[in-house]
Design brief:
The protein has one domain: 2-Layer Sandwich (HIT family, subunit A), CATH 3.30.428. It contains 5 helices and 5 strands; from the N terminus they run H-E-E-E-H-E-E-H-H-H. It binds adenosine monophosphate and zinc ion (ZN).
Length: 149
């Protein structure tokens, strides 16, 4: 999807951040939002995005605040589903597989007995409410407040 204006007016992730369209949000603070990927690679596949519209990593100077959220969401997924591993990926440019031109980090659990190739066949998001609640339960909102005030 590359028909998004520079200021993010048409951008789906901006619209999710602004609650103009629904997203399965499992974390939100003044600068970031994390929500379930609509076509997950595996159960718990989550995207972490800044609320500010930036296209990719090349425009992301000064956004180190993203890191604490990525760590927190990763820990919550690990506690919720105990995957064998977790991949953090982030694509920049069509050639690298970027489809949504609003900076985002994929947090993708990898489960035991799942071949990586098999793992990469995408499904429609299923049991979203259940997945959301299970991960959210593990989010320590007090700790988040300590970080973001
Ligand atoms: P990328 O290829 O790195 O740009 O990844 C874009 C991701 O956004 C894909 O994993 C899509 O499944 C996901 N995606 C697209 N639209 C939505 C949406 N409305 N809500 C949640 N995830 C989405
Ligand atoms: Zn945007």
């Amino acid at each position: 999807m590359s028909d998004q204006s520079e200021d993010g007016d048409e951008c789906i992730f901006c619209q999710i951040a602004k609650d103009k369209i629904d997203g399965y949000k499992l974390h939100e603070d003044d600068k970031t939002v994390a929500f379930l990927d609509l076509n997950p690679i595996s159960k718990g596949h989550t995207l972490v995005v800044p609320k500010e519209h930036v296209k990719d990593i090349h425009d992301a100077k000064g956004m180190s605040y993203m890191w604490d959220v990525i760590v927190k969401v990763s820990n919550s997924i690990k506690e919720a589903y105990n995957p064998a591993g977790i991949k953090i990926t982030q694509n920049n440019g069509e050639a690298a597989g970027q489809e949504m031109f609003h900076l985002h980090f994929h947090i993708t659990p990898v489960y035991d007995g799942t071949e990586i190739e098999e793992n990469y066949s995408r499904e429609e998001l299923e049991q979203a409410e259940e997945v959301l609640e299970k991960i959210k339960e593990k989010m320590d909102e007090e700790e988040m407040e300590e970080i973001y005030g």
